[in-house]
């Protein structure tokens, strides 16, 4: 039992020494390791700055996207309104053309003398119209 206590004391002392070494840490850093740590810190700082710039650009692009989306919606609404107006106007034009066609049809087979007299003369066609030959005009003094 005395041996067992001695072994326990040695183990406890070893544990205390190991903990003391671990808690105190190592104050020596090799120069190559220090250089590598500084390089990593500067890379981290550069990456952080780049991340901030990219986030700013992303927020600006998101705002532009939202503005353009609103503009697209407005233009789509205007396009639908104009399409409806065009369809309405086309149906009105078709209805008016039908009225004109009905109004211009002769009322019946009767032809009166006043109707034939008021008709305008037939327009000459291009084939029946002859051009006069060109003449030279000479100024006489």
Helix and strand arrangement:
Elements: H1 2-24, H2 31-104, H3 113-118
Would you write up a description of this structure?
By secondary structure, the chain is mainly alpha-helical. The chain has a domain at 63-98. 73% of the residues lie in helices and 0% in strands. The protein is built from three helices and no strands. The longest helix is centred in the middle third of the chain and has 74 residues, at 31-104. It is rod-shaped.
Structure, briefly:
With 141 residues, the protein is mainly alpha-helical. It has helices at 2-24, 31-104, 113-118.
Percent of residues in helices? over 70%
Summing up helix and strand content along with how strands pair, one would put the structural category as mainly alpha
Mass-distribution shape:
rod-shaped
- Given as residue ranges, the uncertain stretches (5+ residues, pLDDT < 50) are none
Helical stretch tally: 3
**Termini, distance in Å?**
159 Å
pLDDT averaged residue by residue = 80
Strand content: under 5%
- Major sheet attributes: none
Oligomer: single chain
Radius of gyration over C-alpha positions, nearest whole angstrom: 51 Å
**How many strand units?**
0
* H-E string: HHH
Summary keywords:
141 residues, mainly alpha, rod-shaped
């Amino acid at each position: 039992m005395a041996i067992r206590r001695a072994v326990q004391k040695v183990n406890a002392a070893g544990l205390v020494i190991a903990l003391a070494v671990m808690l105190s840490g190592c104050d020596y850093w090799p120069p190559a390791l220090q250089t590598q740590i500084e390089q990593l810190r500067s890379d981290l700082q550069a990456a952080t700055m780049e991340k901030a710039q990219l986030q700013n650009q992303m927020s600006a692009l998101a705002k532009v996207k939202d503005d353009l989306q609103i503009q697209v919606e407005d233009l789509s609404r205007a396009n639908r309104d104009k399409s409806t107006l065009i369809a309405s106007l086309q149906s009105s034009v078709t209805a008016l053309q039908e009225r004109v066609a009905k109004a211009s049809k002769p009322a019946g087979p009767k032809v009166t003398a006043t109707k034939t007299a008021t008709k305008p003369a037939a327009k000459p066609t291009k084939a029946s119209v002859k051009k006069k030959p060109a003449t030279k005009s000479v100024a006489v003094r």
